[in-house]
Amino acid sequence: QVQLVESGGGLVQAGGSLRLSCAASGRTSSKLVMGWFRQAPGKEREFVTAISWSGEMLDYADSVKGRFSMSRANAGNSVYLQMNSLKPEDTAVYYCAGTTGWTTRRLIDQYAYWGQGTQVTVSS
């Protein structure tokens, strides 16, 4: 059984930065592909970024390339999302998720493990 807990959300002005954390626990957590998704009110949940269990492969949605950076601890039990140059359209609940495959990392239904989400609000 794997549990994921996000933290670090909050209110920030446009152009500012925020760092989200996701603590993973469980017997298989160190081998999981980890992803970040977000969901704004009235909108569908969307892919943001993903990282391989080793931390050597990364993928970013076009909307966040050059602004967001994902990383994970060397031990693989925690992942992070550094968000820079934030825009009002980045406002959403951000979810940490885990899956066992890399090729399907952008597919929401391939993620078996999800955190509770953390709110990020960017003011204009």
How would you describe this structure to a colleague?
The strands form 2 sheets. Strands 2, 4, 5, 6, 9, 10 and 11 form a 7-stranded mixed β-sheet that branches. Strands 1-3-8-7 form a 4-stranded antiparallel β-sheet, with no helix packed on it. It has 124 residues and is mainly β. The protein contains no helices and 11 strands.
Please outline what is shown here.
The chain has no helices and 11 strands.
Mean pLDDT: 94
The shape, in one word, is globular
Beta strand count? 11
User: What is the assembly state of the chains in this entry?
Assistant: single chain
Number of helices: 0
Question: Can you summarize the main beta sheet?
Answer: 7 strands, mixed
Poorly predicted segments: none
The amount of beta strand, in percent, is over 45%
Radius of gyration (Å): 13 Å
Amino- and carboxy-terminal Cα gap: 40 Å
Backbone structural class? mainly beta
- What is the share of helical residues? under 10%
> What is the ordering of alpha helices and beta strands?
EEEEEEEEEEE
